[in-house]
């Protein structure tokens, strides 16, 4: 029983990372029907922004690690949001205004991700960077079960972000506008709603929380490298699709589902079989329910 509970705690931590990134995918898709394949690399950029912000505050300003962590969270989220908004303004908006087919926008998103990866590689080199320790590790033991304070922070952060986004999307006027654009992007401007403002707000939310995920991931696994966002980004996208792309609940549940599957596989089989079993199970879920767990089929007029 202790081993089972320990694996559940580990799965909650991994699922939290997937859920935080998947929420960004599903936000953008819910508004633009666009799969922002650069989102995983925005997560990577967020981790590097957090690294340089923390190094500057610790080394140049001489701040206390606790104060540094408190300041690093908003700084990382704001700067990472700026990266996401820049991508929207430079890469996606011109195509949208020209009425480009969705396929070309998806290809552009893939290229943006490659630019972020290789730009990082060109500017900072291939050497890995070690993230400074900001939080003294506290281990809580319950018999043979152990959980660290950082794991608790990661899990709580994912839950709070989900509740916040659920509130914004379902209970606020701008959330109503976000949902309206996904249903009819042509009628919304006729109602006086500034579409570009809503889209920018969506990218701010999605990219900001990807930056938060990058900071928490760097604190948990303090080794940074330019391609760290590629695989975890793809996994988070798959989790969002399994949960039901475009649905906040689906992204959240899909992220945790993938985390539980991966940890469960590693607990029983060799770790080299983790991705094989995880993706096979997710494929079977999509085979049984192609729209995902919470997704709904869309009817489009031709």
Automatic annotation (TrEMBL):
Pfam family, one: BPD_transp_2
Keywords, comma-separated and alphabetical: Amino-acid transport, Cell inner membrane, Cell membrane, Membrane, Transmembrane, Transmembrane helix, Transport
Membrane-crossing segments per the record: 12-35, 42-63, 69-91, 103-126, 146-169, 190-221, 227-245, 252-270, 276-297
GO CC annotations on file: plasma membrane
Gene Ontology molecular-function annotations: L-isoleucine transmembrane transporter activity; L-leucine transmembrane transporter activity; L-phenylalanine transmembrane transporter activity; L-valine transmembrane transporter activity
Keyword hit for 4Fe-4S: no
Subcellular localization: Cell membrane
Annotated CDD domains: TM_PBP1_LivH_like
Tree of life domain: Bacteria
GO biological process: D-alanine transmembrane transport; L-alanine transport; L-isoleucine import across plasma membrane
Membrane disposition: Multi-pass membrane protein
Protein name: Branched-chain amino acid transport system permease protein
Origin species: Paucidesulfovibrio gracilis DSM 16080
């Amino acid at each position: 029983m202790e081993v089972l509970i320990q694996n559940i705690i580990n799965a909650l931590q991994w699922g939290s990372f997937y859920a935080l990134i998947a929420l960004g995918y599903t936000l953008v898709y819910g508004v633009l029907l666009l799969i922002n394949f650069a989102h995983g690399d925005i997560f990577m950029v967020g981790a590097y922004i957090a690294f340089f912000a923390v190094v500057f505050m610790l080394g140049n300003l001489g701040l206390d690690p606790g104060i540094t962590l408190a300041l690093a969270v908003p700084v990382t989220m704001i700067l990472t949001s700026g990266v996401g908004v820049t991508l929207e303004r430079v890469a996606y908006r011109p195509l949208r205004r020209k009425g480009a087919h969705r396929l070309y926008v998806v290809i552009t998103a893939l290229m943006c991700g490659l630019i972020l990866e290789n730009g990082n590689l060109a500017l900072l080199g291939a050497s890995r960077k070690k993230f400074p320790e900001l939080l003294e590790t506290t281990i809580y033991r319950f018999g043979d079960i152990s959980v660290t304070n950082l794991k608790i922070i990661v899990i709580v952060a994912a839950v709070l972000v989900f509740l916040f986004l659920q509130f914004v999307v379902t209970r606020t006027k701008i959330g109503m506008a976000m949902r309206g654009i996904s249903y009819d992007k042509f009628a919304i401007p006729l109602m006086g709603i500034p579409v570009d403002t809503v889209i920018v707000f969506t990218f701010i939310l999605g990219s900001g929380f990807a930056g938060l995920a990058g900071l928490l991931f760097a604190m948990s696994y303090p080794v940074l490298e330019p391609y760290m966002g590629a695989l975890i980004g793809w996994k988070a996208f798959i989790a969002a699709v399994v949960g039901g792309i475009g649905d906040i609940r689906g992204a959240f549940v899909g992220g945790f589902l993938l985390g539980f599957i991966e940890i469960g596989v590693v607990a029983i089989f060799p770790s080299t079989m983790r991705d094989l079993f995880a993706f096979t199970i997710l494929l079977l879920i999509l085979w049984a329910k192609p729209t995902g767990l919470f997704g709904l089929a869309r009817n489009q007029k031709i």
